[in-house]
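Good morning C.,

I know you're traveling, so I'll keep this short. The sequence:
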Amino acid sequence: MFWRLTCRFSLAVAAVFAVAGLGVAECVDDPDLRWRLARWLTIAAAAGLLVVSAWSLHISRLMTPALKEIAQAAERIGAGKAGERVFADGTGVVGALNRSFNRMSEQLTTRIAALEEDRQQLRAILSGMVEGVVALDADQRILFANDRAAELLEFPTRTPVGRRLWEVMRRRPLLDLVQLALKRPEPCREELRSSDGSSRSLTVHAARLPGAPPRGAVLVLHDTTELRRLERLRQEFVANVSHELKTPLTGIKLCTETLLAGAVEDPEHRMRFLEQIANQSERLHMLILDLLSLARIESGEELFAFEAVPVQPVVAACLERHRPKAEARRQTLELASEAPPPAVVWADEEAVEQILDNLLDNALKYTPEGGRVRVGWGEENGQVWLQVADDGIGIPESDLPRIFERFYRVDKARSREMGGTGLGLAIVKHLTQAMKGNVHAASRPGQGATFTVRLPRAAPA
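The tokens, ready to paste straight into the viewer:
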């Protein structure tokens, strides 16, 4: 290419000299002198042409290998092989060109490495996000999807990149949201419910990528299942509290109205109404105390005095407190073992007593007359376990995961007839967790229930 350009330039220069010579020769009157002058000008032009051509050929032979090497190195860089260099020991224009190319290659390699590092950091950040992230092109082809997105959208393949969104999932509301996001400049948001009957809830934010026409969209997915569950629990709690407060207040109001209507002058019946008012007031008082206690535990405001607490005297005192109630119903209240091993827990003694009181109260309440309630303890894996077992009506398996929720009752009508606030097991759970322990329930209908509390064992003195 360079050689061809040089030849054309040389021919153009020779032609200019020849034309100029002929023009000068035409101005001379002597024919013989004009002929000699034209001949010498032509010879000079030809000689100049030969000199320029020879010089051009020499320069072309010097530069062609260097230019070819630079072209090949540029092609390799374009193919993705960074860090290519060329021989740079030459002098003159060729050497300067080679050195400039090497500097450009080094700078390009540095910038590509920085871009690759940024890309890897961005991928690591997106992969570690709790939210799912999906990037789509204008044809809804997946450009990127982190692991969380694959989990939330339940992709059937581990490599969804390169496939269209509708090929890897069939959730029509999400596909419609993507279509809407590609048409609108402002972001879109929608909450999706699972169609398989589960309670999973997803909130999807879709935003169009800038450009005209749109280059694609980005989806950000939030798993709001736990948030919706907590919202339902809050609603149920408010409804249950309202109902539990309403029941004793209604009884107090009716008895009071009856007394005001004239029953207060009837010595035979007024005591029965006054006893009802006293019982319902006590029930209301216990409910409020349990609510306050539960609120303090959950908020962390409950202060615990941790110390080494021997299990045997705490259990013995608790059995004695509940024995009159058990004897009144001809129930047997006993230790599970005649000689249980000594055990010491690292806990708050009052909290341990409250846990045992609530468990024993529940066991006696749901065990029929003549039934048996057993209390035992032991040590295992650095923990002390306390166990309360009965042979009462039992708990259906479907209800076991929820019995520690506030106000949850397996048989609501029967539970309210037996009294209680519906907060006992919730208090047991939160007290146990506050002391770094856990509680577990096992039961079958008609075969009784067993509650096991595990607390940290106190270190030897």
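Safe travels,
E.
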